[in-house]
Batch of 2 targets.
Target 1
Amino acid sequence: MQDDTRPWGPPWREDRRTGRFQRRRHIGVGAAVVAGVFQVAGVHDSAVYRPVTPLVYALLLAGPVALLFRWRFPEAVFAVAAAGSLGFATFAAPRWTMAVAPAIALFNLAKMGRGRAAVIGAAISYAAYLAICWVFADPLGIAPGARADVRSAVLLAVGFAVMIFLGGAAKARGEHVAEMMKVRAERARARQEQERRQASEERLRMARELHDVLGHHLSLINVQAGVGLHLMDNRPEQAREALTAIKTASAEALREVRAVLDVLRADDEAAPRQPAVGLSRLGDLTGDAGLPITTRVTGDERPLPAEVDRAAYRIVQEALTNVRKHAGEGATASIAIDYLPTALHLAVRNEGPPAAAADAPGEGTGIAGMRERAQTLGGSVEAGPVDGGFLVSVLLPTPGADAAPDAGPVFDHDEESRG
């Protein structure tokens, strides 16, 4: 897996080969700057028993500068930071500020899952500090004010232990977050795949049924029509029988085609009483919805292409159906219709608490069906929760709208669809 050291972008990324989420590795400029500021500022807050020369600042800045490479060389960075702080500690009074860089490096070691290295490194550096600044302080000529005491020794041990613990906890939390993100992404992919599969299966089923129905009856009609034409002059009575058979076959074909298409109609949708549906019948639809609905129309109303008009009506119908199914008591809905120059925008939104038995948004097939209908016309559907409700926004292109037959007003609606 390639290392990503860019200091920008989201904190988590997915490896395209393995599908696993991992945290991005950052350069860590902020941590280095903070450590450098604390350690250099501590010089003026501590008793230093030698002249403050550039060498002193070099010892203090060695650890912060090394932190820039802590993701690539964690063990080496901790060793450099600990050595720099230990060198400064041999001629300065003990202060916590001199150990900021080693503490960050130790935390990073544990966070990267190198707990064993963190414990060993902390133990070695702690023993070196006690040996130099306490046990062998006299032979080494350590100034009395720079020598370790019980308080500083205990605080250093506790600080190292806390850094190792926090690093391990951060590692566990990072792994948990990465796993949750992976599960979430897999669920989203599974939902998308299920929606595509359902749409494909439904289209295939309809195509098969229509093929069977139309193939049989149209073949019969074709044969009987040929017979009728052949017998029209010589045997008119037999030609009449052929025409009667054509009438019967065509009526049966229409009945079976309606039966196939009715499968796609919602259970509580009334059978059509008019030749075609469109936004001109929106008043009937909202009047029978069973909940308060407000409708707002903006833009210049114009005749729409028949397929756009019909699709807009069906999408609004499905949205209101889902409002009735999933919205709680006292819910209201609003429909916004916007006639754009080359498109129709619909927004259907509901207000109110969800019903207790409602499924979570996005887990059903209502939105998938609306999206499929819009995409067949080159449009799009966006749906999701908003403050206090749920919104479905639909955009339908209207090519050749000026030449279309007179249709009802175009509605730009946001569907309240949760199923």
Target 2
Amino acid sequence: MRVNLEQLQSFVTVARFGNFTRAAEELYLAQPTLSRQITALERDLGAELFRRARGGSTLTPAGESLLPLARRMLADAESVRRELAELAGLERGRVRLGATPTLCISLVAEVLSAFHAEHPGIDLHLSEQGSRRLLDELVSGELDLALITTSDASDAAERFITTPLLVEELVVVSSAVRPPVADGDAIALAEVAALPQIVFSSTYDLRGTTDAAFADAGLTPEVVLEGAEMDAVLRFVERGLGVAIVPALVLVDRPGLRSVRLEAPTLARTISLARPVDVEPTAAVEVMQRTIAATAQGFAARAGATMRLAEPNR
């Protein structure tokens, strides 16, 4: 077999676009050249990879089997290339980090600021997705690291090396210029259900967590606005439109918000750093891992009782 990386890159690109013309444009190739590469790959593998039609090209069963393998081979080749380039002093490297929207407006902002200040020559790429999508991007080789939020970080243990960083409570936030929503330092979930609430888009992992908590308690929350993203939710709460249940992490440096803890049983989630189990990190990725761990420690020290450092995996 004479399969090469250029053929695999062409195959993955055609699979992504489902169209030879668009793939050729993406790869800066003439379409006949791209077609010859795919034909040669099919000949070498002894299987047809695409069903070609006037409306586009779709993967055959053989193509579907090859796609994840091709992505992984390309990702491994890129890791080797970057590692050798770093050792040769040709470049400082690149780090592709993924994080959930909640973490992007809090922990990740400080991580990237600190990292870039110390290592300005390293290129940074950020993917903002939900935890499940981030794990998919790790598997496909699109990311080096991902900050995920789960109630049980062991969910990803088989295919990923996960390092628990922080355990944080979900708290109830209200406008700092309005009267407190509770007399004490905690509020019952039943009391929260009776308050006007701003709730997240259904794509948020923590929307499912809060919906399940209300359902388990037999409660129906009073929703005044549904479907907002994190930054919008916090702004609406600051302006007194309602309350919201959010991770404690987002309250750092948010003087316009007042928070109160939930009475037991509290709601909590684990923030973990994940990377593929079968890919060795480059020097740049190792530096990023250390920066993330140090920043997480700083957040835990500033957040008080609502956040603590996670116990390491045993």
